[in-house]
Amino acid sequence: MRGSGGAAADPLAAGRWAFLRRMGAVAVAVGALGGRPPAAAAQGPNVRGYATIPDPLLLLLREPAVHQELRLTDAQRSQLLTWNAQCDPTLLAARGWDQERSAAEVQKILVASRQRLEASLTADQRTRLDQLASRVRGISCVLAPTAVQRLQLSDAQREACAAAVAEADAGLAELRERMNGGELDSREAESASRALQEKQQRTILETLTEDQRRRFAELIGPVFDLGRLGRVSFKAPSVAAEGPWINSAPLDAEALRGKVVAVHFWAFGCANCIENYPWLRQWQRQFADRDFVLIGIHAPETEAERSIESLRAAVRNEQLEFPIVVDNERRLWETWGNTIWPAVYLIDKHGSIRYWWYGELNWRNAGGQTLMAAKIAELLEEPVAAENAAQSAAPQAASLE
After folding, report:
1. Mean pLDDT: which of 123-132, 141-150, 241-250, 377-386 is highest?
2. CATH fold of the domain at 234-397
3. DSSP secondary-structure letter at 26?
């Protein structure tokens, strides 16, 4: 696959939402398995695993299950969804920025978000949100500054806990290499990952005293089903561009209103993109009589791929009949924060990105074409007018324009 990253089917792969992971204490990320294997991996390609995320706040604020757990009032939820929608353009675009710029902008959003929560949530709600942020990170959250202080860890305990975390991280890195080399399939990798993390948990809990374990239980709070997570959404950017459209007149927000949209970033000279063609054609046939629109965003990497005539010829030769917008200046690419060819985003009827897949849909028999087709069918069954429970973007801000 061109660009960075691998197929979304890799249960150990840090997805392209992991652009913020490298930012240390101010990071939010999506990525490697942590804690227990998340049910989100079975639900669909969304946020996969929180355990390696230093600060998961911005993602938790987009989880419908967290909204329910906090028992937000209608007014609180409306305010939060509106704020999330305001932040989404920066969070999406920042995936393609350099590390320094991304870190600075996300830090601003984190600080502003915490200030808003201080004013809008009750003390009990803020406490529960902090507990969830600790719980989703798994046992490694004992090394967070607040946890170290609360548990009063000794230097020796911190070193032992850090060693256990490092050992697990090294094991996960090795599993990832073995998966990339074809030595393990996803099921074998998940089983091995689970064993590594169970060992890490045992080691760290044995390092703590009975009183520290009690305080740790208070830190993470009551049991919460992590399988309910992995349903975040982001307001989808516009698909309008300065370049011409192929197979269609330009599509705008009005034309796409109330429809499920699949956006496919690609380039006609990309071999991995070509592998997706059969599945794209299949989706068109499968959902031909439904409120479904497939849009190709052609973002060239090479000079040859900038030729619109060559693109038109490739479209004819490959019998691609879906609307295609030419993004020769890569403005849509940058607005969406996309970093890899090919990439598919599924957008619901309210205009929010709900699922995504990076790389070939069937990379190493990953079955992404089937999974994403099932997600398209799921989104098509959701109502247009009523706000769906899985929807986490403010209706007034949910637009492709």
Report:
1. 123-132
2. Glutaredoxin (3.40.30)
3. G
Average pLDDT over residues 225-240: 93
Q: Domain coordinates of the chain in residue numbers?
A: 2-228, 234-397
Phi first, then psi, for residue 221 (nearest 5°) are 75, -170
Q: Percentage of the chain with pLDDT > 90?
A: 72
Closest CA to 349 of 320, 324, 315, 384: 384
Contact status, residue 109 vs residue 92, Cβ threshold 8 Å? no
Which amino acid, residue 256? Answer: L
Rounded to the nearest 5 degrees, what angle is found at the Cα of 300, between the Cα atoms of 237 and 321? 75
Burial 95-134 (b: 16+ CB within 10 A, else e): bbbeeeebbebbbebbeebeeebeebbeeebeebbebbbb
Give, as one character, the DSSP assignment of residue 337: T
The dihedrals phi and psi of 195, each to the nearest 5 degrees, come to -65, -40
Distance CA 108, CA 292 (A): 37
Listing DSSP states for 59-96 in one string gives: HHTT-HHHHHHHT--HHHHHHHHHHHHHHHHHHHHGGG
Compute how many other C-beta atoms are within 10 angstroms of the C-beta atom of residue 169.
16
- Residue 248, token pair as written in the block: 């269609």
Provide the token pair at 381. 């069954």
Q: Measured between alpha carbons, how far is 282 from 259 in angstroms, rounded to an integer?
A: 18
* pLDDT (mean) for 95-124: 95
pLDDT, residue 150, reads 94
Q: Is the dihedral of CA 302, 307, 310, 315 positive or negative?
A: positive
The rounded distance, in Å, linking the Cα atoms of 188 and 270 is: 30
Residues contacting 192, CB < 8 A, separation 6+: 171, 175, 184
- Kindly report, residue by residue over 292-330, the tens digit of the pLDDT: 999 999 999 999 999 999 999 999 999 999 999 999 999
pLDDT of 240 strictly over 80: yes
Cα–Cα distance between 318 and 242 in angstroms, integer?
A: 24
Closest CA to 56 of 122, 140, 124, 121: 140
Which tokens hold the place of 58? Answer: 């911005």
Q: Where are the beta strands (DSSP E) in 150-291?
A: 234-235, 245-246, 260-266
Q: Are 359 and 365 in contact (CB under 8 A)?
A: no
Distance CA 361, CA 273 (A): 9
